[in-house]
Amino acid sequence: MPPLRRDVADLLSPRHPFHAHAEVELFLARGPGGRVVGRIAAVRNEAHLAQHHDGAGFFGFFEMERDPAIARALFDAAAAWLAARGLTTMRGPASFSVNEEVGLLVRGFETPPALMMPHNPPWYADVIEAHGFTKAKDLIAYWHPTCDVPARVAVVAEKLAARFQITIRPLDMRDFKAEVGRIRALYNAGWEANWGNVPMSDAEFMHVAKQFKPIAVPEMVLFAYVRGELAGFVLALPDLNVALRHMKGRLLPWGWAIGLWQGRRIDRARVLTLGVLPAYRRTGAADLLYMHLFKNAYAKGIRHGESGWILEDNALMRTALERIGGEPYKTYRLYDRPITPTTPR
Length: 345
Prior knowledge:
Radius of gyration: 21 Å
Order of helices and strands: HEEHEHEEEEHEHEHHEEHHEHEHE
Strand content: 25-35%
Structural class: alpha+beta
Largest sheet: 12 strands, mixed
CATH architecture of the largest domain: 3-Layer(aba) Sandwich
Number of strands: 14
Number of helices: 11
Shape: globular
CATH superfamily of the largest domain: Gcn5-related N-acetyltransferase (GNAT)
CATH topology of the largest domain: Aminopeptidase
CATH class of the largest domain: Alpha Beta
């Protein structure tokens, strides 16, 4: 599923706000005649290190032809670069962080990737594991075959809504900047304790928001309030990959027209993120958000979709998804490999 080249170029550009708190090196592997046969990025993310103090650097944007020599050259180059910056672990793939594309697909190859989710040949896992990497964490994606919420769940959720005075409202596009600020505050507070979480800066969050704004459907970006207090949100987008797969990564000369034509066929969505502040996680706010999202999405022609990713050990969220009919159908894996720093940490 080729991403839009302009979006990849934007992320790689030093002007992207991610680079304000990270150091990045990009490597190409070349074969006979200078032909490009692989690529990898090495990343020292100061925001991650400040949050976790774990000595982890990252690799991402990993692609290669099937040749062990190429893999060895790419991993050795990235590891040496990270080691020279005092890091003790090489983790990935993450392009560039957990806030962008993350993980290697290890289960669920038979279905196409949803928006902003990676996809790779099955043999990539063998290559990575053969070069000293072991599992760090699995990330699970859920499939919703319908937009229906089981009746028993709806009944309980409505009772909880009455008990805790929960209300749900859609995104107000007229107050977009302030709404983005509310989402950022919820995102950074709600995920603060999650494994691998990295808070996003104001500049990063607004940059992403501006990218999403043209495709956002207000009825699919919802806020939950408990007794009048902002408690959580859900962000879902139509799965543009339905159209992007036909555009071959280009808007010009005719990619935009192909995208518009194919976009009429989008009947699935991706729930990028749903979060409720810790104090309100057992009020039923998450169930109410999903109920309203499914109802609104159906009215917009959405019939099914994906939620994810979710940490494998996030039992509360995984149980909530399975309670409303979600089926775990894809697994993405982050790998770690120890490295020996060549400069003091």
